[in-house]
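pasting for the record
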Amino acid sequence: MQAWLSFVRTTFLVLGVLEILSAAALAVKVLARPPQPEAGIPVWFLFLVCAVLAAFGALSCLCAHMMAKPGRRFARLVVGFNSFLHLPALPFGTIAGVVGLYWCWSARARQTEVDGGEFAYQSTPGDGTHPWVQKAAVVIGIAMWVIAFEATDWWGAAHRLPAQTPAGGILLLFGCNFVHVFLHELGHAVAGWSSNMKLSSFAVGPFLGEKRNGRWRCRFSVLTLLAGGGSVSMSPLDLRDLRSRMAFHVAGGPAASFAVAVSSFTCLLGMPGSGWEMWWQVPATMAAISGSTLLFNLIPFGAAAGFSDGAALVQLMRGGPYARYREAMAMVAATTVSGLRPGELDPGRLARGLRIPGMGMKGAVAQLIEVMCATDRGDLRLAKELLENGLTQMGNLDQFDDPATVAEVAFYVAFVTGDMGRAQYWLGRAEHLAKVRKFPLAAEFDYWKAVAIIRQGQGRTDEAEEAWQQTMKLATPRPRSGLYDFEYETLRQVREGRWVLPQPEAAAS
């Protein structure tokens, strides 16, 4: 429900800004070219339409704001009225309107904590963004789309091309956006591949392919279908010139968008007078989407899904804490695709990159990574100290979205401290989180290795043996890499009972 409400807030905000900008554009057109008397449409009526459209936009923006504060007076009235008004706005407004009406009707939905939506991000020093740019990003992006599509309509009218074509409509918009997102993400992937990186995940619209435990898994999500974005994750095969290679990987997406915009516009120029001119809206829409998205994506801003390519490039080129964090995470990712083991990573460089104040759950997970690296080096005292610091930051488990990570916490609590009670608590939290999020935890390697070590520590040998068999079943298909070699080694230690710390250390935990 939280994800759906976040989608509704974002949709109402975008629709509100779009309606306000459309009202302004229409007013400018009326002032520039007033309708002729024989048209039968008075100027005052058009300005009234502009005012009503702008009022709808302001109401929609107010609705997005009030959904985060359901206790405010008239919140249900504002959200309900705005949701009803946007039901005809297929398809996004219709979906958002239905969910918004349900929010008004359901007390449980109103009690759900709603985040700030897709564009809710507060600029922090060193992240490559600026507070004013952050606030204006959504308005700038929508304005670019409006200008781009107005320009294509003007160009088509100037060349007397058919206004209505078989390829027109919402399906054309969805199709061209999907193709552009695919080519943009493909640009990232090709740039990463040419920089000696290996593909870890590839997402376009509702389709996500992700490599976990050496296996590719595919998923389909309705929410990402509505969002229409994409992402690419790649892991470096070595650590040479890492920051410059990462910047090249990031720049691959905008470069692909630029190539799509130029090729689409070139194709569009050849449409008038040809046998294909009735399909001119296809390259025109591709050029409008790719060109406006290119400019918008180069603006340095942050969003719920992450940073824009422009912000990522600024971070990597300027250096600072976020660049070091990106480098550190890339170093860790290298252990999953190469022979580099976690214990071989530079601990000082890793600590400088991962220990960033104010990172919240990311900071806690980063400390878990340091625990893993210290364990591989055999420094269990440091591993225990880092683990305790990480557990303190992980107090609010509601912010976790990956039960497998919580299960891995349970494993290291048992492995490093020997405290089966605390380890069982974290394992139980992982199982509860998986149940709430409907996550297939039983298919995760990290879950079964946690079950194996905890059951063995509790003296429940039969259950430990069963969990051990499940762990090895999931571990066998995984490719050889430094990280997996380390995990095989820790599993052997668990199997042989060589993992529990001396009793004084365990009691001190």
